[in-house]
């Protein structure tokens, strides 16, 4: 038997593609490429802005690490992050409840008993593990018991309250971390 060698033959279309790639882009192609870039940016704006925010946060963290700031300045600087965390905490409960309701409604009646039993066992096991972990860490760390009591302000000192602090507190309370608690909380 003889060996057969495969030889690639250049097609005329390949030469045209190569020639087109080496030529400068025309105005129509440039406009089309710019339009595609804008579409990409519009579709991925949230991801791009999130990554930019992370980069800015890391940069600020490194830049402000060695700056001596007062507690008030730190509170002002951490305010946007605190709002974001409160909003995320506020969204967790409705998302989990709606996810559970949607999941339960899609389960067949035959499988519901098996899944319910597995869920109950899983819940009990994880609760026991969490309880033992909490007890172990509480005995190991002994929170609340400190060898030295350092306080930056004595109880006799009074801190002045600025109007900006009251305004930021008002905005902070507009986003409760727990919706159920916010519904039943009594403010006087």
3D architecture notes:
- The protein has 2 domains: 13-67, no CATH class; 71-140 and 162-188, no CATH class.
- It is extended.
- Helices cover 71% and strands 0% of the residues.
- The chain is mainly α and 188 residues long.
- The protein is built from 7 helices and no strands.
Provide tags for this entry.
Amino acid transporter; single chain; 7 helices; L-glutamate transmembrane transporter activity; 71% helix; mainly alpha; 188 residues; transmembrane helix; extended; transmembrane; Na-dicarboxylate_symporter
Global morphology: extended
Helix and strand composition category: mainly alpha
Ends apart, CA distance between termini: 98 Å
Whole-number mean pLDDT? 80
The tally of structural domains comes to: 2
What is the percentage of strand-forming residues? Answer: under 5%
Question: How are the secondary structure elements laid out?
Answer:
Blueprint: H1 12-22, H2 27-43, H3 45-63, H4 71-105, H5 109-141, H6 163-174, H7 179-184
Pfam families: SDF (PF00375)
Keywords: Glycoprotein, Membrane, Symport, Transmembrane, Transmembrane helix, Transport
Family: Belongs to the dicarboxylate/amino acid:cation symporter (DAACS) (TC 2.A.23) family.
